[in-house]
Amino acid sequence: MSVTHSYPLKAEVKNLNFYYNLVQALKNVHLPIAEKMITALIGPSGCGKTTYLRCFNRMHDLYPGNRYEGEIILYPDRLNIISPKIDPIEVRMRISMVFQKPNPFPKTVFENVAYGLRVRGENRKNFLEEKVEKALIQSALWGEVKDRIYDLAFNLSGGQQQRLCIARALATDPEILLFDEPTSALDPTATSKIEELIMQLKKEVTILIVTHNMQQAARVSDFTAFMYLGEIIEFDKTDKVFTHPSVRLTEEYITGRFG
Amino acid sequence: MPMDNDKNIQEIRKKIALNKLRDHLFWIIGLLSTLIGFVLLFTLIIDLLIDGFPRLGWQFFTSYPSRFPEKAGILSAWVGTTLVMIVTAAAAVPLGIAAGIYLEEYGKKNWLTNLIEINMNNLAGVPSIIYGLLALGLFVYYLKFGESILTGGLTLGLLILPMVVIATRESIRAIPNSIREASYALGATKWQTVKDHILPYSFGGILTGMIIGLSRAIGETAPIITIGALTFIAFLPSSPVTSEFPFFSFKWLLDPFTVMPIQMFNWISRPQTAFHINAAAAGIVLLLLTLLMNGFAVYLRYRFRKRIKW
């Protein structure tokens, strides 16, 4: 897996095993995450890609019986973010997540975006306003909502809600942004807007995206990892994976012969 | 053959007619059953209104009980009911909400929380007089609160505590998990998530549960009689506002009291018809209060549902 050797790394997964109680969901996963690049995770349902993504912000700590083994090293400070010694809250403050279905809070657009900062104890109004505006511009939503940032977020359309969730995740200046099938609940127009946005965002942040949609992975990502039954079968540059996969299973999956 | 076919059709028609007859029969039975319930309730209310309505007036609300039915009123009873309800709410609401939040958000799901859950549901069905007995032993004899407003309020608070807990848990459960995850993913702690999301979003349901609990407590008689509330009170509890520093007092908490249902019970057990009319009038007031509270609960539920849809 030396495909990333010429790129600076933001994180490195080494020997990661993950268990839901006694069921092992991830087996001995290795993966380098290149800085300010987009890494896509593809694979059939139940292959562990979402489980894998949720290790990065310790979401599994919210539920009993889950166990990590191995390391996810975050650069530059070489912090093993899945170590039990590291507070999951600290990890979540550095690594943001956008979920499968838009999940805005039943609050105003402003309060949604500002919440991450409020959690950090930030209450200065001017500062919050500045940050909210910046995040909404970054998520390409500002133009559509600038006149109604004090309206309830539920009044936005599905695609707008998802971009709001992206703004919410961006407002805290995360080091890595995790996307868990961010367009699976959206129509094609909203989907292409989000994809464009994701490609824009890699200038500023390292991105990890789980997707069911292979065209999406091919369009947006720089690196692609194909997962199957909790293991990484192939990891390479996206072009390579989609044009000359080196493993037969990968080829069968991307050509739609199974999955 | 055509003869045969005709016969067949006639047989089918006969069967359809019979089925339709049964259908109509059930329609009539259903309607009658509904009407019995409705007519009985309606008659009760009309009867109460005819008897008691003319008696309702300023004098009725501002007079103490009296030996003379036309001079008697419900002043001490409605003041007592109001104060007892304040204590009930103050005791049951914070405890119930905190317990509900703990069980849903903090408590690990194990045999102990399961046991608590089963018991909580059973407690909601325990006859109210049992609570009266408990309160008599605990609040009156052991803690020496006496036959006071404090004892009455705490007793009814215990009675509605399971209802508040159950309502809290149900409205917390209605919040989708994706909202919790969104909050945690931004680095919020459990308490931040509860304070900023869980509580505000479940507030409508909690409030509804509280009001329905209080509207049950307001009509409770048995536990209040058990703890020894007086039936004839011709004075008001001491005022919570005083003229001297610090301008408020909690002395009223330890004053004796009566409540509306007890006042009714007292009047109805007298031989004179005039007192029975007083009882009917007090009944109207109690009924109206309950209706108002339930109506308010329905309104709140409607308003919160409209604002927050998952």
CATH architectural arrangement of the domain at 2-104 and 177-254 in chain A: 3-Layer(aba) Sandwich
Beta-strand content bin of chain B: under 5%
Q: Whole-number average pLDDT of chain B? A: 87
Low-pLDDT ranges of chain A: none
Strand percentage of chain A, roughly? 25-35%
Structural class of chain A: alpha/beta
Distance N terminus to C terminus of chain A?
A: 24 Å
Element layout with pairings:
The complex is a heterodimer of chains A (259) and B (310).
Chain A: E1 9-20, E2 23-34, E3 38-42, H1 49-55, E4 66-74, E5 79-80, H2 88-94, E6 95-98, H3 109-119, H4 125-138, H5 142-145, H6 158-170, E7 176-180, H7 188-201, E8 206-210, H8 214-220, E9 223-228, E10 231-237, H9 238-243, H10 248-254
Parallel strand pairs in A: 3-8, 3-9, 6-7, 7-8
Antiparallel strand pairs in A: 1-2, 1-4, 4-5, 9-10
Helix pairs in contact in A: 3-4, 3-6, 4-6, 6-7
Chain B: H1 2-52, H2 58-62, H3 75-106, H4 111-123, H5 128-142, H6 149-173, H7 177-185, H8 190-217, H9 222-226, H10 260-268, H11 273-307
Helix pairs in contact in B: 1-11, 3-6, 3-8, 3-10, 5-6, 6-8, 7-8, 8-11, 10-11
Description:
The complex is a heterodimer of chains A (259) and B (310). By secondary structure, chain A is of the alpha/beta class. Chain A has a domain at 2-104 and 177-254: P-loop containing nucleotide triphosphate hydrolases (Rossmann fold, 3-Layer(aba) Sandwich), CATH 3.40.50. Chain A has helices at residues 49-55, 88-94, 109-119, 125-138, 142-145, 158-170, 188-201, 214-220, 238-243, 248-254, and strands at residues 9-20, 23-34, 38-42, 66-74, 79-80, 95-98, 176-180, 206-210, 223-228, 231-237. In chain A, the strands form two sheets. Chain A has a six-stranded mixed beta sheet, with helices on both faces. A four-stranded antiparallel beta sheet of chain A has the order 2-1-4-5, with helices on one face. In chain A, a hairpin with a 2-residue loop joins β9 (223-228) and β10. In chain A, α3 packs parallel to α6. In chain A, 46% of the residues are buried. The mean pLDDT of chain A is 92. Chain B has 310 residues and is mainly α. Chain B folds into two domains: 2-55; 58-307, MetI-like fold (Orthogonal Bundle), CATH 1.10.3720. In chain B, α1 (2-52) packs across α11. Chain B is flat and about 105 Å long. The model of chain B has no long low-confidence stretch (mean pLDDT 87). The interface between A and B is medium-sized, with 27 and 22 residues.
